């Protein structure tokens, strides 16, 4: 079982993408993020604080962290979502460790910023069309009222 926070790519690919943290020569690789095929959203892995601090210092970039006592919950496969280890991981506080070793709120360093001038996917001109329709209706009612007078 792993703890992860949302991550985003600019373009989806047709293959799964797994990115790794840079590590010292001879050290095992540390998975940074995992993206499913065709998706721009993926999962950035959260490490126990000691390991997150080490990765942040080695890579000179922030790493998501959880309390060290949660590390034991990541060593055994989970059979159901009701297991105590799974429930504990769902409620685990997540922070970020800076390259300096400073612990900060995860939102301070893992922030998704939309492209400048881009509308969110929910943005559309439907509201404008509705407003023009209401103004046309009001104008028609006003003209009819004026023509009767």
Task: Indicate the topology.
Elements: E1 4-8, E2 17-21, E3 30-35, E4 41-45, E5 47-48, H1 49-59, E6 63-66, H2 84-90, E7 95-97, E8 103-105, H3 106-109, H4 126-148
Parallel strand pairs: 5-6
Antiparallel strand pairs: 1-4, 2-3, 3-4, 6-7, 7-8
Short description:
The protein is α+β, with helices and mostly antiparallel strands and 149 residues long. 30% of the residues lie in helices and 22% in strands.
Q: What is the averaged pLDDT score?
A: 81
Distance between the termini: 76 Å
The number of domains is 1
SSE series: EEEEEHEHEEHH
Number of helices: 4
Oligomeric state of the chains present here: single chain
Q: Percent range for helical residues? A: 25-40%
- Uncertain spans, ≥5 residues at pLDDT below 50? 112-117
Report the count of strand segments: 8
Class based on secondary structure composition and strand pairing: alpha+beta
